[in-house]
Amino acid sequence: MSNISRRILLAYLGILLASISANATAQLIKKFRKSNVTIISSGQIFTFNIELAEDSKQHALGLMYRQKLAPDAGMLFDYKTPHRISMWMKNTFIPLDMIFIAADGRIVNIAERTIPKSTTVISSHENVKAVLEVNSGTVAKLGIKPGDLVRHRIFE
Fold it and tell me: Do 140 and 69 belong together in one domain?
């Protein structure tokens, strides 16, 4: 097999593998259920269209590989039982704000402007039931802070 033939074959295999990976990720993304979440902050109400990450596979995938996120969109990770959560941004291409939420819907911690692709551990610092990820800068823009309330059926 000539060098040119090998290069063509390797390029084809690379494209094929990338396509399979993209299709697998797209199929997983379609499996997230859609919902809405509301944050009450300083008397104002902010609503986000979210995807729900409800099991360990969805928790592991999260917003990885996404190239963009609508301004009013996000992902709510439901961990069912409150415990300390550690997250990272590996394979996440967009900067995010992470909002850590106690079982009663109260925001207990916020990690703002996380760094895409970083493997730095981001901790809830206390027991939480859920984490809401939104676009970076959203928390500052809307004035969201610890103590604010998040409303969604998982907190009822």
Answer: yes
Q: Residue 139: which of 114, 116, 102, 105 has the closest Cα?
A: 114
Pairing of strands 122-135, 44-53: unpaired
| Verdict on whether the full-model pTM lies above 0.85 | no
The domain that contains 53 carries what CATH number? Answer: 2.60.120.1140
Residue 154 carries which side chain, given as an amino acid letter?
A: I
pLDDT digits (tens, 9 = 90+) for 48-61: 999 999 999 999 99
Domain that includes residue 78, residue range: 32-155
Token digits of residue 64: 């990885």
Residue linked to tokens 């995938």:
61
**End-to-end Cα spacing for the chain:** 65
